[in-house]
Batch of 2 targets.
Target 1
Amino acid sequence: MGRIQLDHLTKRFGETVAVEDVTLDTEDGEFLILVGPSGCGKSTTLRMIAGLERPTDGNLYIDGDHMNYRVPQNRDIAMVFQDYALYPHMTVRENIRFGLEEEAGYTAAEMDEQVEATAADLGIVDLLDRKPGELSGGQQQRVALGRAIVRDPEVFLMDEPLANLDAKLRSQMRTELQQLQADLDVTTVYVTHNQTEAMTMGDRLAVLNDGRLQQVGEPLTLYHEPANQFVAGFIGEPMMNFLHGHADDETFTGSGLEYPLDDRLADAVGDTDELVLGVRPEAIDVRRADEATGEREPGPHEFRMQVAVSETHGDQNVVSMTVDDEETDHDALRAVTDGMHVVTQGDSVVVTIDPETVHVFDGETGETLCNRLLETDPELAAVSSN
Amino acid sequence: MSQSTSRSPIDVESLVENFNYRRVGKYALVVLFLGFFLVPLETGIMTALKTNSAIARSLPFAPPAGEGFTLTNLEYAFSQLTNSFVNSLLMAVPATLLNVLLASMAAYGLTMVSWRGQIAVFALFLVGVFVPYQAVLVPLSQFWNNMFPLARMLEPLFAAIPFLQGGHSRLVPLTITHVAYGIPICTVLFRSYYKSLPNSLVEAAKIDGASITKIYRRIVLPLSLPMFGVVFIYQFTQIYNEFLFSFTLITGSNHPAAPVTLILPAIGSSTEGIDFGIRMSAAFLAALPTIILYVAFAEQFAKGLRTESG
């Protein structure tokens, strides 16, 4: 039950292509996250699964049944909307009960019982006789969830359900939603533009950009082995550093930077001329210049830089740096350092980038040429880089 | 001396400071318009309450004094209008209710349900708004008298109803005509309101498994109650005050089914001239139902207008 298959799904609105050729398969009971920047087609994809939009091309199956022409009423799905879409003239009880009324095989008493049980699960029994307008955002959110789960559908669809909550409530609801999904074991498709939500909640993520599916995989796979530069930049906070440049004689030349490519990287680069090097901020080692090398010349993978901004987060510091003797005004690199390791603005630092941590992307297509090596499982990285 | 003036309760200085010609102009204009709208009304009420000789002797807008005051005008006008009040309400209330309900359904179907060709159908509704009544009078009377004489068919039925006569059956085609001609404008009004409702409510109901009719009954209809108030008041006033269709389909003031608008032009005029007291009394009595409606629904009216624009 509840297996969703998208087969070359395409949606066009007039001339605009909202979703292009998306093929995707969920497993039963999976928590799949559609993630991407605004306008990437993730909501349209979800609305096609819901039946609120009709696909222009391609096929959609839920549980093996062809769904393209089936109205939402007959799809056995439940959806949580970003604005919750609670019926303002009904009480919470009536809101939750509304969907049950159409399900076959319930007596009125059973329906009431079901509503009470769901409300108890979500801790909203006290609110049952209030109207949505009298509830806080978090309470409305719970009612919307209650309305979805009371019907025990094959599939849950959630369209940015946490977007309207404040930060604290959001992280709390995040955990609760995960718990709930695990308990119910119902296939869930969850749309968000927030990569933290995506990383923390999903069994798998599907990253979309410009209507195209970029990559599908488990959160850590996407983090360590992005299929292209877009995924690499989208997943991870702060964002991966990208250095644009050329490859000459096993050396990468960017603006104010020269980085020798070791054998692994050089092999992957091959004949490609335009390159983008990607390094995660947390993979960059930053030391104050006087501590690091003293008067010694920096090694091949070390650079002298100047701290432009240092953001303190407590557990970590995010340091933006510019190339030392360079007139460029943009920050060359961002690094994450340990919370106790404080550098201040204007400090001279030595930056070390381990070649094992470097991703290489094709400068023109954005395709990944080579991903970083993982200490835990170097074989996996080696496989994916081929 | 100077001390006592500065302590006077009226702050003359600030009054002078606030004085400017723009303000004076503004207030003068307000007073002018207030007079422009209120004096005729006041004159009408005063005239209704005066005897004929008092009307002739006193200023039109002066209140009746002593001997000049009378209620006979009102009593007479009321006795003349009683029947036509019943006729008017018998026609206008069902016509308005049907009209508003059908228009809201049409607007729902044209706005919140998507189907092929709905723009073309909506265009027809828009055209309907602009059809002048005068242009359809002849076909209308042809249709109801020759092609489909519904009034004649229903005459025996109406004759059997107590307090009514067979002639009252003419109110039925009149009612239907009003419903038909009122739907376009009411549909446009409802449509603009439905456009402003969040789409996700209907979508949520669809996903909850509700059919198109259930969505209308349980979600859209309850949510459009404020708009119902607005459109009901508007349309009731239109139908109640309408003259041409009544004149065409019921023909004369001495017909038993004549509504208020047919009686009004004839009342108070005789060979001796026009009795202004009776005319004014009749006019105010005739306006009473719509005024009551506005007062009763004022709150909902304001709410509906607010939600429509907001």
Target 2
Amino acid sequence: MSTAKNININLKIWRQKGPNAKGSMETYKLDNVSTASSFLEMLDQLNEQLINERKEPIAFDHDCREGICGMCSLYINGRAHGPDTGITTCQLHMRMFKDGDTIYVEPWRSKAFPVIKDLVVDRSAFDRIQQAGGFVSVNTSGNTIDANATPVPKADADKSFEAAACIGCGACVATCKNGSAMLFVGAKVSQYALLPQGKVEAAQRVLNMVRQMDEEGFGNCTNTGACEIECPKGISLENIARMNREYLKASLT
Amino acid sequence: MAKSAFLKSSLAKKYWMALTGLFLCLFLMGHLAGNLQLLVPNNALNFNKYALFMTTNPAVKILSYLTYISIIFHAIDGIMLTIQNKAARPVGYAKSNPSANSPWASRNMAVLGTIILVFIVTHMVQFWSRMHFDQNMPLQTIAINMQGMPQEFYVTTDGGYLPKMQVDQKMIIIKDRTDFYDAAANVKIKEGYKDLYKITVAFFQDAKYGLIYTLLYVVAMIVMGFHLLHGFSSAFQSLGLNHSKYTPAIKTLGKGFAILVSLLFAVIPVYIHFFLKA
């Protein structure tokens, strides 16, 4: 890239040895960071520097590094996945920062997402919510039918697909002032509630998933709308409203 | 399972917040309609008649109890939400940039609500409790020219007048705050109107504190405006009413409601303090 240049940055990063250790913000200086590199590549570069200095590298989550897997996290300069919209941290580029910038890097903060080490948090609370109802029961003993045999209105299929785009990264929880997981749960409830295959278990699903969400210690939604803005996949608040409808319906019938 | 969870789940709290909030929006409209009568010139008697109706009509009574319950429920629900939401994030962020993704009012509903609650309590002490319980609540009088001599009369609920002089001379005595009794026969002859108009005007025109009361009232209405700015449309989202067809209209309506209602409420004490001749 001809427009790429190298910048020098200061970093303030949360370091915590283990789940029960007391953590703190540590300051690092990193020179010669290419603006063409991704944020995670910058952290790799910092870790190499730390290893060369015989220091403990910084633990952070990452996997596919192309915005699909939902593994990367990080609260960067006060925003989930950093200062850009519609992206995960791996899709954030260093061209978003200027020479001499001080960048704050913190883990997702939520009672339900305890810190394991440094910037890595335990997001298995999301798995347990999924297990509580994020599925459809289909008999697969040799007599499965083609999915297209069940007609689905195009508009519903599209909305369901948009909800299913949720990668479960937890940015909604991290950015919500209440630490609420309702955008995640709303998306998971909606993706099934919109399809005929999901309607069969719709009532039990929403009751179980909301119960599990509450048990995990997530906060209550107050409709600030921050989650929708910070969601890398653009999951709409409409999904929370749909969950509210589904839950009301399931509770009263 | 379903029934018990419905009462304490995170979503149930949203529904209660929304329902009580929307009911209180209706209350605000009713209250505002009543208050706006204060802007009409020479309207003291009509205002006091209205105040009597609002404190005695059985249907209004039911609505008023619903309002008290809604306020209490809305506040308790809000306190519970705030405590639980604080607990959901035991360790905060070193750097946070919330204005990048959410409106200020939406993040400060608890603070705004607390200020409104304090306002409601003081407001009820100043006006509601005086109307309901004050033993020295003044009664509506009117000055009529009798052969060139202005004389004061009590206005009575049957549309008649009682000379104030007769009360001063103890020929008629006032019992139970509003009832006129013939002193000699000890029988109730007429009933008067509590002069809520007079104490309202006196409150905001108070020589010492009138300006402060007026300013505090205006500040409280600005706070309420911000609370409504988020609260009105938020209630619909909580009840699951979000659709690209009507949500933009609800949001616009909510903003209009918040601004118009608080502005009209605030105009009244400003008019009384600065423009109304005592």
